[in-house]
Every structure is written in structure tokens, then in C-alpha cells.
Amino acid sequence: MTTAFVLHRADGAPCSTVFRRQAFGGNDPFAQYREIAWEGPGSMVAGRIDFVGEVDVPSFPHIETIVVVEGELTLEAAGMAPLVLGPQEGAVIGGGTALRVSAGSRARFVFCAADCQSPTRRGLFPLRADADFKPSSSLPAELLLGAAPQCRSDNVFTEEGAEYRAGTWDSTPYHRIVRPHPVNEFMQLLAGSVRFAAPDGSVLSLGTGDALFVPRGTSMGWESSDHVAKFYVIQTVRASIERD
């Protein structure tokens, strides 16, 4: 059965997720630091990285969304002011971007990365908790156990070649039935808490600061009783990729 993967617990509680030390591709700038929790169709990976030091990357080899959970990380790209990220702050690195990554002391961040053969969005794209939210679609009535929520989103990065989107989303409370998740999704909770129900009746609870990756096809419900906000990455996986 496909399951969700907890990537980080803000309260320091251990994760049951098994991480493996592994590079993502042959030119991975974080090869010696990367810990992968999940790798699947569509050339996507998710996990965590403990990094210290400095690395110069002439051309970033893939798309990567990072969210710092401990410490401080600095990203420097040509033509942009240095982007200094602390806990609960993140950014998307576009494929092909030339940049320097540095941390004077240990920084931990969670990531969701994807291969892209022909990148079109180079640069750094900050993720913001105080996003420029716009109303977004709610859920179909047949999926809801109660009133429809009011949802908003701010999509700051789209790479069509990888079917990869990233941004910030928030919602009023709602309760959804258990159903197969339609996309690969990374999420870092910025506010609120969520209870994810599994088909066997078990419940996975996440709170502010926690990070989760949900592979496409994972059967799970959603129940929130307060305002929830999150950074997200979504990747649509075509059926042809899943069969390969």
C-alpha cells in the first residue's frame, strides 16, 4: 500500500520514515548530504538535507524546492540579492540556475526535487508565508464531510516540462473523505494542524512546522479544525510515466 512520508517533526519527535543517503543524479550539488525518503515516477524525490559549508553550482541540475527547518541557509544567484532562509522559510531553485549555497553552521532543510530535461524557469523563487493569495477552487461536494472550505493559493513557480508547481496555500477548516491522492505532493505546514485518516482507520497528525510527502495514489482523508496554511509542491504524474 502506498503511504505518506513524514520528513520533519517540528517538536523534535523522531520520524518513522526511513531515509537513505543517496545523490539525485550524477551532478547533485548536495550529493554527500542528501537523504531521500521517497523516489518515484516522474523523476521526483523528497527527503531532507543537513548542510554546512559552501558550494558553487554553475548550472543547477534539476528543480528543487527547499524549506529550512533548522539553522540558516544563504542562496546567492546572479542579479539577485542574497536570499537568507531561516526556519519556516523556503525557495524554489529553477533548473539551470547558477548559484552559491552556504551555511556557516549546520542547516537542515526538507526538499522536493524533480528532473527536467529542458528547464525554462531559471533563478530563485522565494516562498512566502505572507503570500499574494488569490481565491482557488474548493473541493467537489461528494468528497466533503461537511461545509465546503474557502481556499486561497499563490503559485510562484511552474515548470511545465516537469509538471511541477510550487507556492503557498491556505484554507478554512474542512473534513474530506478518504480517497486516493491525485498528485505527488510535498507540504510544509505554516499554520494549523491536520489529521490524515488512512483506510484502516489509523490517523497521522501533523502540526505547524511539520513536513510531509504524499505520493500519488496514497489513500488518505483530511480533517482540520482551524485555519491551515502550507508551502506546497505538486506534480501531476501521467499514466504513461507510471507504467514505464
TrEMBL record:
Q: Which residues cross the membrane?
A: none
**Domain (S)-ureidoglycine aminohydrolase cupin as annotated: residue spans:** 163-232
Coiled-coil-forming residues are none
Source species, domain of life: Bacteria
Q: What is this protein called?
A: Cupin domain-containing protein
This chain's source organism reads: Paraburkholderia kururiensis
